[in-house]
Fold this sequence. Notes:
Blueprint: H1 2-15, E1 16-18, H2 25-43, H3 45-53, H4 63-69, H5 74-83, H6 89-96, H7 100-112, E2 134-136, E3 139-141, E4 164-168, E5 171-175, E6 178-180, E7 193-198, E8 203-208, E9 221-229, E10 242-247, E11 251-254, E12 262-270, E13 278-280, E14 298-308, E15 312-320, E16 333-341, E17 353-358, E18 370-379, E19 383-394, E20 397-400, E21 404-408, E22 420-431, E23 434-442, E24 454-464, E25 472-478, E26 482-489, E27 492-501, E28 513-518, E29 530-533, E30 547-553, E31 560-565, E32 578-587, E33 594-600, E34 606-609, E35 618-626, E36 635-639
Parallel strand pairs: 22-29
Antiparallel strand pairs: 1-6, 2-3, 4-5, 7-8, 8-11, 9-10, 9-12, 12-13, 14-15, 15-18, 16-17, 16-19, 19-20, 19-21, 22-23, 23-26, 24-25, 24-27, 27-28, 30-31, 31-34, 32-33, 32-35, 35-36
Amino acid sequence: MFIGRWFLFIAIGFATLVVSNCMKNADHLILQGTRCISRCLQNYADEISAVSLHSNNSTKLNSYRSCVFASSSKCASCIQPCTRHFGTLPMCMQYCDGNLECMYSCAYFNDISGMKMGYCSAPAVIMPADTLVSQSFGHENTSIGQSSCTSSCGGDYDCKSNRKCCVMDCQQTCQRPMVRKSWLPKRLERDCVRIRERPDQQTAVLYWHQKNAHIYPPWTMFLVQQQSQLSKGIPERFRKWQTIIQTADKRLTLVHLRRGYWYKFRVAAVNVNGTKGFSVLQQPFKLSAAPRRPPGPSDLEQVSIRILSGAKYNLQLRWKLPNYADSDLPIRGFHVTWHQIGKNGNHIRHSVKRSFYKIAPKMRIYKSTQWTLWIKKLRLFARYSVSVVASSGWNNGTLFSTATVITVTFPHLRPSEEIINLKIETPFVIRENVVDVNVSWHFRFTEAPESIVRFMVEWERRSCLDGSVAKTTEQDLTSNVRFLLSDLQMGCRYKISVEAWYGSLRNQWSGRSVVSFATPTCGVLEPILAITQNDSCQIGKVSSKPRKVGQTQLKSSSSTLLSWKNPEFAEIATNQQLLGYFVYYTVGKKETNITWTTIPVKAVPYWKISDVEESSNYFAHILPVFADRRNGSESIIQFP
Length: 640
């Protein structure tokens, strides 16, 4: 009997394996999704084979791609929770929306989320000391002493490395797990993981090939991770492994590699039970091409000025990086240089000063990140040239970007920058028989900071459909690049001009940017062109409309002339007076790009439209306007 028990123990020992590969808790957490995917591939292997057989794709698909390719299959539903990490089981079940395959994966993922791979060995069956029984004079006596059972762990992740929290005797302790050898895929040999560079494409191919490739079933997944550092001499404890991909292929094209970095890769073969560990690439790898220069700063502009005693001032600059992804190496900082410019335009050597703006390692750089720097004790009325250059460290040297340069002076002279993109922001707002509208423009603050730049806005009423010819002009000063024009009269033409001011002197003003526009009348293309508030337009429409609308294509020009006849007098009531027409056109049937104006009453009204493209369809709307703010029925014509 004793010899039989020993034979059984030896047989079990040969069939099991103590997982001795040292893996961190973070590695076990990463393996959960890969094990979940492998479970789906194994359960639906027949379905995957059918998809691969009937696929029209000329490229041979592996089991994982075949599963994802069949988006309506059970395998695809099973994999979805494996690639998304939900916080709780109810959230995962809610995502599945009643799909059984998806819900099974949620339950499986929830089960393995608190456990490491492997199993605990069977606990020894002994009688605890506090329940010892002795027979004395025919009576049962409990134990004389009582021992305490204290647990050293509450779960698997309370234990280090691969150890699991197992029940031993009357307590929970960290023990080595037991796994059958046949349950885990064979670990890749170190010399099987290789990498090959493609210099012409600035990429590399990572591939792994075991001598006995048939030992991996189709549901075996490979987890690929990498380390990236600028130096080979960084200690291993400071390097972190990052997961690149989970795949069933045995090769991977690396298109994300950055020049100047050293890379180290490792691959693990994983199935539903886990893995025997990672196989690490023997030598670090680096692309042969030299790293590119960092991108130069963009949008360099002045932000603020502080006047000091002694005819000096401090200047604050601001800039940003156009696209950080274009830089192979991390940007170490910015070199700022400024020097005074003489009357002849040459640099004054003794006035050159420099400053280095260092970027802290914890700073994260995005496209919208802005950097500011104060330049101190500049002289009033003097011209300075300021340049900003980004720098990166490489091979005990420095890589510099192209310089971004601006000219600085204070007090400022006439601006060389002009106001651009002056436009009317529709829709108009009609309230109590008046019209409000926003006007916006764009201005680059390269010569003067925003804190001192002002904009003079001037608007003039030129003519109105009701026949009033009294021209009125108003103006206002603002520091914003947007202005609200309020209390405008309906059905009138206005001209608005905007100029930038660096100071109160006339030689500190920029040139004017001018635009003309017409205010709408009631009921004109609401709510795209106009919005009516407080019941300002409750007057009904008139049935009269323009007659015989025609078009004429002007020769040797891209313009079209639209003409029409006034409504018949019989259609107009005696108490109604025709003031003119509100006309607008759209490109196509989309009412997003609208051009509009007003046309006064004439014997033969007409409207000249310029820059007409023959390849596009235009729709012109002609709307009569009457004295009591009533509108007639509009006529629509398509041209050209």
